[in-house]
Amino acid sequence: MEKRIWKFLLVFFLLSFILSGCAYFAARNEIKAAEKATAELKGAGGATLAPYEYCSAESFLEISKFVLMENSWKVSREFSARSRSAAEAGLAEVKKKK
């Protein structure tokens, strides 16, 4: 009986470790996508043509990186998704004005 409990605990800890690693990498990938979109917005002149979206994208990205260091991966992923969304909206705004 005791062996069975140990096996269960081992499997439980391994699965929880693996799943938490997936959340970390998902957050990192979302941050990379947000960085790319923000860089595109900056390169397209978003700081002057779409300042609200540009500042929002930069701020959300900064918060996302800070929260990632605090090991709150789900929240970090949400902020980086907001950053990417703001950057994409800014790119659309820049394209309208050009």
Give a structural overview.
- With 98 residues, the chain is an all-alpha fold.
- The protein contains four helices and no strands.
- Helix 1 runs antiparallel to helix 3, helix 1 (2-43) runs parallel beside helix 4 and helix 3 (51-69) runs antiparallel to helix 4 (73-97).
- The longest helix is centred in the first third of the chain and has 42 residues, at 2-43.
- The termini are far apart.
Q: What structural class should be given to the helix and strand makeup?
A: mainly alpha
Question: Number of folding domains?
Answer: 1
**What series of H and E elements makes up the topology?**
HHHH
Shape: rod-shaped
End-to-end Cα distance, whole Å, is 72 Å
Spans of 5+ residues with little confidence (pLDDT < 50)? none
What is the arithmetic mean of pLDDT?
87
Cα-atom radius of gyration: 19 Å
The proportion of residues in beta strands is under 5%
- What's the total number of strands? 0
Number of helices: 4
- What is the percent of helical residues? over 70%
Major sheet attributes: none
